[in-house]
Structure formats: C-alpha cells, structure tokens
Amino acid sequence: MNGMSPSTQTGYVNRNGQVTIRNSDLAGNDHLQSTYQLACSHCGNNYGSNGSDIFERKCPKCQGGRLGLAFTADLI
Q: Which of 42, 53, 60, 72 places its Cα 20 to 30 Å from the Cα of 15?
C-alpha cells in the first residue's frame, strides 16, 4: 500500500454508493485535506469532498448530503 487511505483510492465505494474518482490536487476546506472528485452511483452526480469525509459522504443531489466542494480549477 502507498500510505493512502483506502477511501481516497480511485474506485473506492463507500456504504452510501459514493465512488472516489480522483484527487483534484486542490486544497480541501479542512486542515491538511485535498479535494477529491466523487460520483454518486445512484444518480451520477459528481461533486468534491475532503479526503477525510469520503467514507461517510452522501450525495448532495439525491441523498440529502452536504453541498460538495469545487473540484476543478476555473480556467481563465
């Protein structure tokens, strides 16, 4: 293992059906966290999450979860 938590590895699916897609390499909004792109396996919604929250996340669109973080840098 490479020292990463299993929940931050691409393809991880949590108990609520949220799938880890990738590390966006953007800072999260919690101490020393990165923002990860997640996708809901129920409705297909994509959203960002702190790595430390992935294991318990619920989809903000179809499961009443918290709003997601931005996971792409705005291109100018």
A: 72
